[in-house]
Amino acid sequence: MNNETQTHFPKDFLWGGAIAASQVEGAALEDGRHWSTADALPYGVFKDVVIPPPEDYLKKDGIDFYHRYKEDIALFAEMGFKVFRLSLSWSRIFPNGDENEPNPLGLAYYDDLINEIRSHGMEVMVTIVHFDIPLNLALEYGGWSNPKLIDFYLHFAKTLYERYQDQVKYWITFNEINVTLEAPFNGAGIQGTKDTVDKSTLYQAIHHQFVASAKAIKLGHEINPNFMIGCMVANSPYYPLTSNPDDVMEAMKRDRETLFFADVHVRGKYSAYMKRFFKENDIKINITAEDLQIMQENPVDYISFSYYMSYCATANPEKNNQELGNVKTTVRNPYLEISDWGWQIDPKGLRYALNQFYDRYQKPLFIVENGLGAVDELVEDGQGSYTVNDDYRIKYLEDHLKQVAEAIEDGVELLGYTSWGPIDLVSNTIAEMRKRYGFIYVDRHNDGTGSLKRYKKKSFNWYKNVIATNGESLYENK
């Protein structure tokens, strides 16, 4: 290996994978856990709260990670993970969200889980809230529209910080915090949809999350100054559909819907364009001087984001074909292919997104979700077992990772990359197993049947080799 090929990825680059508690653990009411907002979304999008969930509700048992985590962590270690991102279920530790004392059985589970991860030499990255707050906080308090949730959240965060201060270095305050705009119940525990929830209520809830995030950063750094605490956004950059200035301005407007969230986390204030937006849309938010001070004094240490696709923007969307996306729809980009779920596949968009964020903030970045959801077919592997020949997933990830390397060469400071769903899990937005992301196949199906046995896909050894060579295998024999 020559010096030139050694420069694609930094030598300390953190390769790994990412999951969410509500999508893998199962054991919905085991060991003192109570219902969460994730449990109240049996079909992935909010219509009516359904408690208890129907019997065939897949998240109730997930992939049984709660009982099988040692087997799964061993498989991640076999791939060579340097870091593993997970969330800790709030309702497993504080079942109703407003208790003074945590559930000891919930903490004991996470003690064992984190110890198991670290025993395999992996860094632990914890998402404090990943679309998963105690249902009681949504039904009795109105979710994040209520400022009381700030203190409940900080109590939860403090419990985690103090207990795992010597075991966890990387923290994320909220998963894809900007999704609240599109899915108020999923993101903030507010009952309704983006079309029915009052915009002032929606942005007030988001402000409460900003304040909670800043206070959590302050608290975390007081407990352990070496903590790296970041924000996370769902990052899908917009391209103008044409060079028509109206389309260019529309793309800028749409991009700002995402950039706004990173702006506040990094700069600690509301940009002028958002103040104009609030004024023109008669959005009124209670923002105190104390809020602004705590936000300005406690910026994030890094910015993390998910990237699955890019979007297109036009001033005349009704005249163009629409495609599904991550939570929202987009105008079809005629130059891109689409996935089984209609998501536009755009590897170069990831390089664009990395440069856009780094140019704007000069903060370390971390890609904490990226992957391809697809329909996988389990076939015999010729050795008495089964596998999935997922060359389409390998191509997707390879194409994206090569663009990540280009962004690093551009000068972007990137801490690491955790693929989404390194093991098949229950999807959040549509709550099914048919949409699979993993390097590991889980024998469970939409009707709830299956042995839950794990099988390595073809991509398992491919990713193992990528990590072992620090990305250089991407360039072998190409």
From TrEMBL:
Entry keywords, A to Z: Glycosidase, Hydrolase
Pfam families associated with the record: Glyco_hydro_1 (PF00232)
Active site: E369 (nucleophile)
Source species, domain of life: Bacteria
GO molecular-function terms, A-Z: hydrolase activity
Keyword Methyltransferase: no
Family per record: Belongs to the glycosyl hydrolase 1 family.
PANTHER family, per database record: 6-PHOSPHO-BETA-GLUCOSIDASE ASCB-RELATED, GLYCOSYL HYDROLASE
Name of the protein this chain belongs to: Glycoside hydrolase family 1 protein
Taxonomic lineage from the root: Bacteria, Bacillati, Bacillota, Bacilli, Lactobacillales
